[in-house]
Design goal:
Number of helices: 7
Structural class: mainly beta
Number of strands: 43
Largest sheet: 5 strands, antiparallel
Radius of gyration: 26 Å
Strand content: 35-45%
Length: about 550
């Protein structure tokens, strides 16, 4: 073969060609589509070898067996496709540098690291990756390449799937999701279990969540047979109590529940089944009322047939305060007013003014009964108020934020969603809540920055346990609602007009939006449909 690179300039990698997609029915491999790449053709030049390698990287079957055929014998043994995935928004462009080297330039859209964490790119700057070639047995092969693989977004969606790993809140009441992404092949269940044993993502694993598995627990490859995943664990689990075994079982059940071929899970040690007596399951999906909680015509309650059904136990108390905003949690209410934030409970107790600072945001509540509040102009001044009347300053790190427009605690009480503004740009943040041994909020962990629309931040809310939605307005007045899976992909939700407030339900279908004119809307198709009018404010349910 000639040593001259047969390439005059730059070339893009085609979407079609030697990679073919074959649809299959449900299989133990959990594949909806199997990509069938071709191996290197005899006499292929450097461009064809590199093209072929990048396309073959879309097939994880047998540990990327076909992709390794494009590499030298030595590199094939060393190359680590599991080091990460660079997800691109465009076709990669190949550029020759010499007879034995080429570079690939891509526009990153996101990346998945070796633990399966998905992070969208914050920069649109292109990235260039080097490749070099040698002849081995008279054929061109790649002899240097970065670890990991490159996939366009469409290919990534075909080859990878999301899998929430589940950890406990410190009280073992809730299971908390930590979304990861793994290739669809026979090793998916093993990857899920090993990632679960490795622990939560760094931003979440700072004390907000715990695991039932003892330190050092390892897993051999998981075998799925007739819908049952046999999870072989190391001997550490044998010394655990039955309660701890139950908790491990629930973590495995929920974490492997996203694997299509798995219907049940069994634990074994040294090839012997481990008996786990069923217990009281934790809460995986905290649910709220599907109806919107609103203030309408001087009454506070749930919207039904375009009218409010007042919450009789607290409505009069709340109306007497002149409410501007509210949050509910298990029959307790935090109410924002011109005088500050009040805690309101049913029964004979009067409302209690828990925060009289000026400029407070709509308050939030957590499952332990703490009322969270913060002034819009002082994002670092977060405080949590206990049911015993105690006040606790919560140490936060908002990456230099100068303003904050919303702060919402997750329904499991382990995370905070905050929508801030830093250097004139919106910054949507989720952070872990670190509490002391008594459950008192102490500080927030390092923030994880999520995707949001352009322009000024307006509001944000939890959609469910894994998804959040944010609302921004551009200088031209255009509104944008973006939904973001924490640890996953973001997408736009139509373009509302004059929106002011978002409030989540139990799913994306239950997301509510309020406009400045008092129109309560939900997304229908590609637009937003008005459900009711004259709403004074839209409350949050936690």
């Amino acid at each position: 073969m000639s040593g001259v690179l047969a390439l005059a300039g730059c070339t893009g990698i085609p979407d079609s060609g030697s990679v073919h997609a074959q649809e299959v029915s449900a299989t133990p491999n959990d594949n909806d589509v199997i990509l069938l790449p071709a191996g290197p053709a005899p006499g292929a030049n450097q461009t064809q070898i590199l093209n072929g390698f990048l396309q073959a990287a879309a097939s994880p079957q047998k540990n990327y067996e076909i992709a390794r055929e494009y590499l030298t014998t030595d590199l094939s043994k060393q190359w680590d496709p599991d080091a990460g995935v660079l997800i691109t928004s465009n076709q990669p462009v190949l550029t020759p540098n010499s007879d034995t080297s080429m570079s690939v330039t891509v526009s990153p859209r996101a990346e998945v690291d070796q633990t399966g964490e998905y992070k969208e790119s914050v920069s649109a700057a292109s990235v260039t990756l080097p490749f070099t070639f040698v002849q081995e047995n008279g054929q061109w092969r790649i002899n240097t390449a970065n670890p990991g693989i490159i996939l366009e977004q469409l290919r990534f969606n075909q080859v990878f799937s999301s899998h929430p790993l589940y950890f406990y809140d410190p009280t073992y009441t809730y299971l908390v999701p930590d979304v990861r992404w793994f290739a669809k092949d026979t090793t998916t269940s093993t990857r899920v279990v090993r990632a679960l044993l490795a622990g939560p993502a760094p931003w979440l694993g700072q004390g907000a969540v715990v695991t039932a598995f003892p330190d050092g627990t390892e897993a051999s490859p998981v075998v799925v047979d007739s819908g049952t995943a046999n999870v072989p664990l190391s001997s550490q689990v044998l010394s655990q109590s039955q309660v701890s075994l139950q908790r491990m079982q629930y973590q495995l059940d929920e974490s492997l529940g996203s694997v299509a071929s798995v219907a049940s899970v069994s634990i074994s040690v040294n090839q012997s089944p481990v008996t786990v007596v069923p217990g009281t399951p934790p809460i995986t999906t905290p649910l709220v009322d599907n109806k919107a909680l609103v203030q309408l015509s001087g009454a506070f309650g749930y919207l039904s047939n375009n009218a409010v059904v007042p919450i009789g136990s607290v409505n009069d108390k709340i109306q007497a305060l002149g409410p501007l905003s509210a949050t509910s949690s298990s029959g307790v209410f935090a109410v924002g007013t011109a005088a500050g934030v009040y805690a309101v409970q049913p029964g004979g107790n009067d409302p209690v003014l828990v925060d009289a600072r000026a400029g407070l945001l709509a308050p939030s509540l957590d499952p332990a009964g703490y009322v969270w509040s913060v002034p819009a102009g002082s994002p670092n001044a977060v405080q949590a108020y206990g049911k015993d009347g105690s006040t606790h300053s919560v140490v936060v790190n908002w990456n230099g934020a100068s303003n904050i427009v919303s702060l919402d605690v997750s329904r499991d009480g382990t995370r905070v969603l905050a929508f801030t503004e830093a250097d004139g740009m919106p910054s949507l943040i989720v952070a872990a809540i670190i509490r002391d041994k008594d459950g008192v909020p102490q500080r927030l962990g390092d923030p994880l920055v999520l995707a949001s629309g352009p322009g000024a931040p307006v509001d944000a809310t939890w959609v469910d346990q894994t998804d959040v939605a944010s609302l921004t307005v551009s200088p031209s007045g255009d509104d944008r609602v973006v939904v973001q899976q924490i640890g996953g992909i973001s997408s736009n939700l139509g373009v509302p007009s004059n929106a002011t407030t978002l409030s989540g339900g139990n799913s994306l279908d239950g997301l509510w939006l309020l406009t400045s004119a008092g129109d309560l809307q939900q997304q229908r198709g590609s637009g937003w449909q008005t459900i009711s009018k004259g709403i004074s404010f839209l409350a949050t349910q936690t």
